What does this fold into?
Amino acid sequence: MSSFFVAGTDTDVGKTTACRAIIQALQAKGVRIVGYKPIACSCEEGIYPVENQSNESQTDYDAENNSDVLALMDATNEPVSYQEVNSYTFAHSLPMLTRDKSRIKLSKINQALTILVQKYQSVVVEGSFGLLTPMAEGKSFADWVVEHKMPVVLVVGIKEGCINHALLTAQVIKQLGVPLLGWIANRINPCLGHYKEVVDILEAQIDAPLLGKIPYIHKPESQELGHYLTNIDRLMYMQTELDRKSVV
It folds into this structure.
């Protein structure tokens, strides 16, 4: 019935961790919810990454073992398949910047999202890299989010430099004209000094509520994280309001 987009201030800030927490928290409220990652990429590759050079028709999946996609599947109670919650998996990290970008079709991604939205109460859509990263067919993830009028949850990886990244990303979301439902603080550096002060500054300056704070956790992809989101009622209320307005 509804969908929203989870954007990160950077890569490796914990978007999948936040998606897992959102799915688990909303499931605890009785919501039938799944995650969807349109484009999944490998986070590790050699010094000279090799893109697919074959001229033959390519599969949309270099493999079906991306850790982010598997984490989303594990988080939901719904019996989803890998290909239902992911449209493209690449064995290298930046297909959007190589010749492989021609393999990515927005029509397939749009169709997959439509099917999920019609089947489940809510769909958490996880982006790749940052919001302004190229997606496909000359469009960025931000362009695609605007086309779908999709509200956004911002994930901030609490680390050095995150204040600047977070405030700039929040500003971009506001300029896009889509709702910023809230933001999640994800502690990715356990050794960072002044953690509380950083979160306090962001809470004061981001014009959206703090949905929760996820501490540094070993292997979060296998943990129960929903209880770290303490303002999830706000997310449910906003989704209800957006659904109501779309019907009117």
Observations:
- The CA atoms of residues 4 and 39 lie 16 Å apart.
- Strands lie at 2-8, 33-41, 86-90, 122-130, 134-136, 139-140, 152-158, 180-187, 210-214.
